[in-house]
Design goal:
13 strands, Beta-Lactamase, 17 helices, about 575 residues, Helix Hairpins, eight-stranded mixed beta sheet, five-stranded antiparallel beta sheet, 4 domains, alpha+beta
């Protein structure tokens, strides 16, 4: 596109240059020369010269009109040169013949031809002018043509005139060749320059395409710390629009929210110190924390002087999840080995103890004290057996078998299970806040139902006989990747700092009779679905457990909507909600 515009501009400039050259020859040289000669000479065929000038002016006018009307410019120029050379020859004849100085006018169509028609045009024009000059000279020498006498001299051809004509012909040929060669060279240089420009544009577009489609973020800064360029991946990872950052100082734009990242960048800007494969955590404007792998290096110009900074960074969220999963797997391997030993060393003797106690309890006549002791042995052995079974279930948890399912169905099953629990009175203490959209997730329904039930039972247990449990479903379309968040918010005692940090560790519990395996099992199930289970205290009392799951799409009118169509609908709804909120605030 830019090349086409450039060529159009060159064509327009060429038309005006050609018109200027034509008018220069016609008005400034030819007309002025005739006028001066008419003043100096006592006798001059002025009427014939006027007709010649009229023909030349008519030729100029018709040429301009033809080009403006859309006629091929080069053809019009060639025809006008064919007119110019005979017109100049006629002027030479009526202004003294071979003695006339108007022979120098032949150089004007030659210059025009070399400029507009390049090498071939210059050669053809020089040949035409030389042929007419030579023919005219021969005709005058043979006295077939007698030019008008100027300055009262006899019309006799002298040797000097013949030599002058010969020199003129030679100069025309030489100058025509040189001018044509120069025009050819200029033409070749112009084509080479255009080719190099096209190659440069192609390389620039290719480089821009590579940057635009890279998964890693790329940002460049100058030596003042001003952001010069950032690619779409950098916008996505940092969670900021490049329009708001490019052209501004990186410390001004990101210093308040990402001080560690800005610190590494400014160290390289000021001191030229590079940072290779540094892992930092950045907090984006939406509040999410993203682990980022960062490399910062100085940029140098052709002379080796520092001219800026380039940084490349990647979102390490997937790597961190895999790292955590590997650590969890390492713990599970150790726990699996321990569970096998427990199963052999404790479970079988425990079964024998329980059986023996039950037999003795049935055969002996026990007083109240001994009966309580036997009940205690039976109850505690059952509790110990339950702990072992929970531990084995956690260590040997079956792999999930996910499929696309509607999250509302899982929430509805949770409601039924809680309402059927007589001791909870959940029908009066449970409030489910369904989302606006019927979202679809890729999960194992049975395992996810167990996770939701475990979180709900823990909430009711922490609240005791009073308090309400709120279960809400929300969609985060701007999160990468888009996700669904199921929140369980209770009105219990909340979580202290130590509990919040260790709550998903195996065997850590705050309950008197807890095993410390329920929440770790739930955390492991959610992690196996590429999700996250988070816990925090709620201002004013209570705790919130949130399950974050990847969004598959929306279920509408019996069909699954995925991809860009689902995201556009979710983002449009979010934007509409923001507008309504802003109007309400106003």
């Amino acid at each position: 596109m830019e090349t086409s515009v450039r060529r159009i501009d060159q064509d327009e400039r060429g038309i005006w240059h050609w018109l200027f050259l034509r008018l220069s020859m016609t008005c400034l040289v030819l007309t002025a020369g005739v006028g001066l000669l008419w003043v100096a000479a006592q006798e001059l065929p002025i009427e014939q010269l006027k007709r010649i000038l009229a023909v030349e002016y008519l030729s100029v006018g018709l040429g301009v009109v033809s080009v403006v009307a859309g006629a091929p410019r080069k053809i019009v120029q060639a025809l006008q040169i064919v007119v110019d050379v005979p017109v100049i020859t006629a002027c030479v004849h009526f202004t003294g013949g071979l003695e006339s100085r108007f022979t120098l006018l032949y150089f004007f169509p030659l210059v025009v031809a070399s400029y507009e028609l390049r090498q071939k045009g210059a050669l053809y024009t020089a040949g035409l002018a030389a042929a007419l000059t030579l023919s005219y000279t021969l005709l005058v020498a043979a006295e077939r043509i007698v030019p008008p006498v100027v300055a009262f001299r006899e019309g006799v051809v002298s040797n000097g005139s013949l030599i002058g004509a010969h020199v003129t012909v030679s100069l025309l040929l030489v100058v025509g060749y040189v001018a044509g060669e120069m025009a050819g060279r200029l033409d070749r240089k112009a084509r080479l320059l255009a080719h190099r420009s096209d190659e440069l544009d192609h390389v620039r577009r290719e480089t821009q395409s590579i940057l635009d489609h890279m998964g890693s973020g790329v940002m460049t800064l100058d030596l003042e710390g001003v952001v010069l360029r950032m690619n779409p991946a950098a916008e996505r990872i940092l969670g900021i629009d490049k329009v708001a950052l490019e052209g501004r100082g990186v410390a001004e734009g990101l210093g308040a929210i990402m001080p560690i990242l800005v610190g590494h960048l400014m160290e390289c800007v000021i001191e030229g110190r590079n940072a290779d494969r540094v892992e930092v955590h950045i907090e984006r404007q939406d509040g999410s924390v993203v682990p980022v792998g960062l490399s910062v290096n100085p940029m140098c110009d052709a002379e080796g002087n520092r001219c800026g900074v380039v940084t490349v960074f990647q979102d390490l969220s997937t790597v961190v999840r895999m790292r955590e999963r590997m650590r969890s797997n390492d713990r599970l391997i150790a726990m699996g080995e321990l569970s096998a030993s427990i199963a052999h060393e404790i479970r079988n003797p425990l079964a024998s103890i329980r059986g023996s106690v039950e037999m003795l309890q049935g055969e002996l006549e026990l007083d109240d004290e001994n009966s309580r002791l036997f009940e205690l042995i039976h109850r505690e052995s059952a509790r110990l057996n339950r702990i072992i079974e929970d531990f084995l279930e956690y260590a040997r948890m079956r792999p999930p078998q996910p499929r696309n399912c509607r999250l509302d169905d899982v929430i509805h099953d949770l409601e039924e299970l809680l309402h059927s629990h007589e001791s909870l009175h959940a029908r009066d203490r449970l409030r489910v806040l369904s989302g606006k959209f019927d979202v679809v997730v890729h999960v194992d329904e049975e395992l996810m139902r167990q996770v939701f039930l475990n979180l709900a039972l823990n909430a009711f247990e922490s609240m005791g006989d009073a308090g309400e449990l709120r279960v809400s479903v929300a969609v985060r379309p701007h999160h990468l990747p888009p996700e669904v968040v199921v929140r369980f918010i209770d009105e219990g005692d909340g979580l202290d700092e130590e509990t919040a940090e260790r709550i998903f560790e195996p065997f850590f519990t705050t309950k008197p009779n807890g095993t410390g395996l329920g929440l770790p099992m739930a955390h492991r199930v959610v992690s196996n679905h590429d999700g996250q289970l988070r816990a925090r205290s709620v201002d004013g009392g209570g705790a919130e457990f949130s399950v974050h799951l990847p969004l598959v799409g929306l279920f509408r009118d019996g069909h699954l909507i995925t991809g860009d169509e689902a995201l556009e609908e979710l983002m449009a709804d979010a934007a509409h909600a923001n507008v309504d909120s802003a109007e309400g605030t106003a």
